[in-house]
Design goal:
Helix content: 25-40%
Low-confidence stretches: none
Distance between the termini: 28 Å
Structural class: alpha/beta
Amino acid sequence: MHILVVNDDGPISTSSPYIYPFVSALQAAGHKTSVVLPDKPRSWIGKAHMVGSTLECSYYTPAPGDDQWMLVNGTPASCTQLGLHHLLKDLPPVDLVVSGPNFGRNATTIYNLSSGTVGGALEAALCRKKAIAISFASKDQQSSEIIAAAARISVRLIEKLCRKWGHGVELYNINVPMMANVEACKVLYTQALPSSWISGSLYQETKTNGLINGLSKGHIAGGSNEQPGSLKYFKWAPQLSDISRCVEESPPGTDAWAVSNGSIRYEKCHHLRQ
């Protein structure tokens, strides 16, 4: 197959340790891979596009002798769009878009609806391409052996899903636990665990450093502050207690329960275009 790979963690780095072993596993299995990634991490961005921005694509060779990867100063969904419609015109049509592997799990509805990894796959589904989002469910440092094993079992599952693609399915979402015997783990079909923000927040109030979205206040056109100190500032500081509690209480058959209990899980999305 010709597989377009996108992600939300960007090129190889400490926050994107899974992409290179995964692409290598796809190639070792005989698949043609085209890699189009954000040029920096774009997590928690969903299926967003940078409206009004002009995107730039640069080329990057991860190791001597490797095919070039493409890096875009945009979102995962933008990478999917550019890969499908602009950057690969001289190659055979893309058979499948894989978004990931995400650095950490994407289980529960909060994560799934917020995830840039899932967003990259959603964009592909809306472009009428088969799409799979995949997450390696750990942010802890892993041995190269465990990462390679997770990549191999992921490729085998992707191949199996593509051979028997479900009727009406437009997207599969896979989570792979990171453990020594990952290739022997059960593979379970699950439902996303419903979750919501109750007490937690993604932001924390903070003092300003004089910058708003990278611009000093003097660069903001129009308007005025009638009352000194009337502006408030908030930094990204997720409080994930709601999700943690939800996962701890998750019933059997949900995505969070399966990953927490050492199973590979997948779920499917139907009829996204209706």
